[in-house]
Amino acid sequence: DSGETWVMSDLLARHRAVMPSWLALYYDNPIEIVTGKGNRVTDADGVTYLDFFAGIVTNMLGYDVAEVREAVERQLARGVAHTSTLYLLRGQVELAEKIARLSGIPDAKVFFTNSGTEANETALLLATCARGSDQVLAMRNSYHGRSYGTIAVTGNRGWKNSSLSPLNVHYLHGTDRDHPAFRGMGDEEYVEVCVADLRDVLATATAPDVACLIAEPVQGVGGFAMAPEGLFAAYKEVLDEHGILFVSDEVQTGWGRTGSHFWGIGAHGVVPDAMTFAKGLGNGFAIGGVVARGDLMDGLPANGVATFGGNPVSTAAANATLDYLLDHDLQANAARLGPVLLDGLRPLAASLATVGAVRGRGLMFAVDMVEPDSGEPSPRLAAAVLEETRRRGLLIGKGGLHGHTLRMAPPMTLSEEEAREGRDILVEAITAVDAAAR
Ligand code: PMP
């Protein structure tokens, strides 16, 4: 063994000794990434990878972006990494103005947090306080975070490590339709069934004052499961009849990643009462938040401060990231490259017995791996594809209820050449795993 391998396994042993056992690591031999440039990262062994997972849908401009680095350095050069949200913060106000304008929500106001979990906690707080109710609707197969409140609205069992939530949650079918009862149904019929289910839940299972529905337009951790066309517009009609608020979790789908719209929910023609965001906004710096109707935001009856929420460094990074994204129209890039990737992968579903569905919107696309004999979800084969893509110099993600879905969400700065390179590696890796599985 080389000294480097020894150093790596030593770090892994130290990780296992002091980090929780449920903090899962990717790959049989986990990677330590040490540098990044453009849309590639390099590990401690000097191996460079094209990054199609971008820190879990986070580095939307890739790595070492001069505009973001310089904005952060300018802020640090002032000697103020942090003061307090008890004082006026110019970067925070400017960022809030941009997000309020981009949200499409009338009279929108913004509250900044440090993560998506906290953003969703805040949205749940706004909705439950506004409605004076602890009852919340959420989607099956969803993921919204790792706190008590957000685990409660997480409908994906793989991430539910507690049931001790203060919220009273009812889960709807809808986004993830991979259920025997819905197989073979067209979108229109399926949406009708889901709306009837929502009406039934409201009529029979809840007290009359449900606070909100929280939903991801495309389920991220759930394996990029896409709500069928029209679902949220149809839900919204019913919610409005009851005064129930709608929170769209845009933590993975925001900022134009889905290509056709700036927010994932835009594809449904719905303007929510609140949207939550995080991940990509700071291009690696921790920032999240809620943008909501002003009356909702102002409705909380007591003070609330997030010490680090919207601090000078993360808002400097976020303002630079958002400006870059808009100036370079990266939403259009996502729309342009999505088909390059999908069209290359779709044929695999027909030709390989280990490939189930292939789906995507913009730069969020997924491949379900299935057992060749039974067609059942195959986490084993998905893990094998991850090893094969890694060996070929490509990082991708996993997801889905059973961990059987390959999840790809490259930086939105991806070039067409890189899109083809990553796509070709994926096709090769999946084909190799398929051949070995027979
Ligand atoms: N909502 C969604 C849709 C997410 O994908 C995630 C993170 N995977 C979260 C919320 C939680 O964000 P964070 O990890 O920043 O707390």
UniProtKB/TrEMBL annotation:
EC number: 2.6.1.44
Cofactor annotation: pyridoxal 5'-phosphate
Superkingdom of the source species: Bacteria
Pfam short name (any one): Aminotran_3
MF terms (GO), sorted A to Z: alanine-glyoxylate transaminase activity; pyridoxal phosphate binding
CDD domains: OAT_like
Gene3D superfamilies per the UniProt record, alphabetical: Aspartate Aminotransferase, domain 1, Type I PLP-dependent aspartate aminotransferase-like (Major domain)
Keyword terms: Aminotransferase, Pyridoxal phosphate, Transferase
Transmembrane segments: none
Family: Belongs to the class-III pyridoxal-phosphate-dependent aminotransferase family.
Record note on quaternary structure: Homotetramer.
Protein name as annotated: alanine--glyoxylate transaminase
Organism: Marinactinospora thermotolerans DSM 45154
